[in-house]
Amino acid sequence: MFADLADSDSEPESGTESEPSVAQDKNKKAQQVDETVVNEDEDEDEDGDGEIDIDGDDDDDDDDDKEDDDEEEDNSEDDLEDDAEQQERDEALSFRDLIGKTSRTGTVLTEGFVQAVCASFGAQNIDERSPTEVQRQSWQVLLESETWDRDVIAIAQTGSGKTLAFLVPLLAELASLSEGALQSATTSCIKPTAIVLAPTRELARQTEAAAEAVLAHPGVGIKLSVFLTIGGVSYEKSRQDLLDSNPHLIVATPGRFWSFTNPDAEDMCVSLDRIQSFVLDEADCMLDMGFLDDVTKIRSLMPAETRVILTSATWEQDSLVQVEAKKLCRTGQSPIYIGVDSQKGLTAARTVQQRVEVVKHKGAPRFRLLVETLAPLVKDNAETDALAIVFVMFKQESKKVAQDLREEGIPAVALNGDMSQTARHEALETFKRGEALVLVATDVAARGLDVPSVELVVNYSLGMTIEEYVHRIGRCGRAGRAGRSVTFFLRPDDCKLGPELVKVLEDSHQQVPVDLRILAEKEVKARARKTASASSSTSSTNSRARGGGGASGAVVLDQDEADRLEQQRANREKQLRLQRQRDAKSGKKGGGKSRRGRR
User: Can you provide one Gene Ontology molecular function annotated for this UniProt record (predicted)?
Assistant: First the structure.
């Protein structure tokens, strides 16, 4: 299921190819199975139009019932086929098959290295678990000579193991450096070999911890230096620690990292002219939420031949994110696209049971519903150790909801971007230890956060985009475990996202409430009316222009969706600028000029 991205702006259809790959030569059987799965998934949407069909009458109930029965039988057969296909994919590449593979720098993966990888996520031995689909496909590309030098865009559901998908080849490549001296450095400038950028401090810290967990295993036999640099901590101390560490691999958030690499800054301390691999985790977020400027400037300081790896759980087709992603990749060759389930657009993890409650009021009724939703988890916690995350829209709201839950006898902590890095870390650790059963968070926790005990995600409100909804509910149901999500769909605030939410629910075979369908259909009709009105205005304006009347110049039309998305993006960029200003003040208390990018 990997294919080369064409030079056009749109993604290729699933299963298209432009040149042979190792997966075709050595794992042809597994690829054929994957393509069969893709074709079956495409056949599920018979309309192919992605629209929500809501019919208020019962004229064709008998035919519909018969079709439903036939569809249920087909689904049962599909489930059996999926089980067989999954078994065949499991046989395609196991962790044991990694032993003996070679990285592009010549490192041979030993049994001790593979054992370290398995131990990093709790497996007792190599044969206890199998790699996830995105891991298999990534390793088939990045650990084979025919393709290991290609840029890669890996799209997979939340909780599918994307971090190890890029870390295993990356650490194997860097292992060759551990046998010689560290890369050259001066007292004021270092030259690392690989960079991983993440959008949030929590995700960056989690990625660094995953790398350290592999390297700390006694059987790995690799001595590599990995350094984490994020905003919210002392700038000067972080800079000095970075120089002292002289790391091979740096994991960072973009704002803080740019402040170290900016060639125009007097205290620039990181040179990127020896970077061999550049990983952009949660690429859709990094290229569409205020990080693009920093990411582009950082990439421009690297050699043109630097290999680029982009990962994400969401990937909108024909989007500006795709255009920017291709700009980061090398010219002259198309990146290899690795898509699992998300090739056709937005896909929620199928291990998560999703429920939507349409709520009319934001006040006490909604909070009482939240308490009722959390009550069973709190009651059973002594036996299950299950935890829950409640996502809210605003930073102050996270504090208030957490406090109100504590007053109800539910142990809860808040997590938001206004908290200091120390406070954020302490809150997260308190939650991971189970001392607080509920984490009330803004979207700062929606990306990449992996806490195995999280069984339930509650969206106190839907969120600003449907992409954030998918990332939020992906905090549970990770690595194949079962999870549940409950979303409070607020009227009228969330109605503009109704059609997209219905589509996500339907694509992941979840129940769609009747009242949500009705609201979604109203939104579809409202959009159609607005489009028709805009088209009419355009025709009228063009007619007047041809007749010589009316004002000259272009007419700006009301594009509802474009306006909404642009406003969301502007709001997030504003929040990011304010956060950087706060970080700059907290990072250097003694005064002096403020530094940008302290995320």
Answer: RNA helicase activity
* pLDDT the model gives residue 480: 63
For CA atoms 287, 170, 482, 448, give the dihedral sign: negative
Report, as ranges of residue numbers, the positions in the chain whose pLDDT lies below 70: 1-92, 178-187, 289, 317-318, 340-347, 349, 446, 448, 479-480, 536-599
Structure tokens of 194? Answer: 């690989």
- Residue 153 to residue 322: CA distance in whole angstroms: 10
Which tokens go with 506?
Answer: 């339907």
Partner residues linked to 108 by β-bridges:
102
Token look-up 């009330």 returns 440
Alpha helices in 329-394 (DSSP H): 364-384
Contact present, 589 and 420 (Cβ < 8 Å): no
pLDDT at 450: 77
Instruction: State the residue for tokens 């939340």.
Output: 158
- Count of residues for the chain? 599
What's the half-sphere exposure (Cβ side, CA atoms, 13 Å) at 43? 10
In Å, what is the CA distance from 263 to each residue of 98, 239, 257, 436? Answer: 40, 15, 12, 44
What is the largest distance, in Å, between two alpha-carbon atoms of the chain? 81
Q: How far apart are CA 415 and CA 423, in angstroms?
A: 8
What angle (nearest 5°) sits at the alpha carbon of residue 303, between those of residues 302 and 305?
Answer: 125
Specify whether the CB–CB gap between 377 and 455 falls below 8 A.
yes
**Side-by-side strand order, sheet with 277-280:** 2-4, 336-339, 152-155, 307-312, 277-280, 194-197, 249-252, 226-229
Predicted pLDDT at 474: 84
**Structural contact between residues 141 and 147, judged by C-beta atoms closer than 8 angstroms:** yes
In a 10 Å sphere around its CB, with 0-12 CB exposed, 13-18 middle and 19+ buried, how is residue 356 labelled? buried
Closest to 388 (Cα-Cα) out of 468, 463, 451:
451
CA 506 to chain centroid, in Å, comes to 21
Local structure of 226: helix, strand or coil? strand
Q: Measure the CA–CA gap between 524 and 503, rounded to whole angstroms.
A: 12
pLDDT digits (tens, 9 = 90+) for 154-185: 988 777 788 999 999 999 999 887 544 344 55
Domains and CATH numbers, the chain: 2-27+93-344 (3.40.50.300), 352-520 (3.40.50.300)
pLDDT at residue 27, as a whole number: 43
The three-class DSSP label of residue 484 is strand
Instruction: Determine phi and psi for 438, rounding to 5 degrees.
Output: -130, 130
Contact 236, 192 (CB under 8 A): no
Q: What residues contact 345, with CB distance under 8 A and at least 6 apart?
A: 315, 316, 317
Instruction: Give backbone dihedrals phi and psi of 197, rounded to 5 degrees, phi first.
Output: -105, 135
Q: Name the strand (E) or helix (H) holding 278.
A: strand 277-280
Give residue 37's identity as a one-letter amino acid code. Answer: V
Question: Do 342 and 315 form a contact (C-beta atoms < 8 A)?
Answer: yes
For residues 434 and 390, the answer to whether their CB atoms sit within 8 Å is: no
Residue pLDDT, tens place only, 455-492? 999 999 888 888 889 889 888 877 667 889 999 999 88
Q: Which two tokens stand for residue 386?
A: 């299950």
Taking each helix axis as running N to C, give the angle between helix 514-546 and helix 498-507, from 0 to 180 degrees, rounded to the nearest 10. Answer: 130
Strands (E), 51-168: 152-155
User: 128, 132, 134, 137: which is closest to 96 by C-alpha?
Assistant: 128
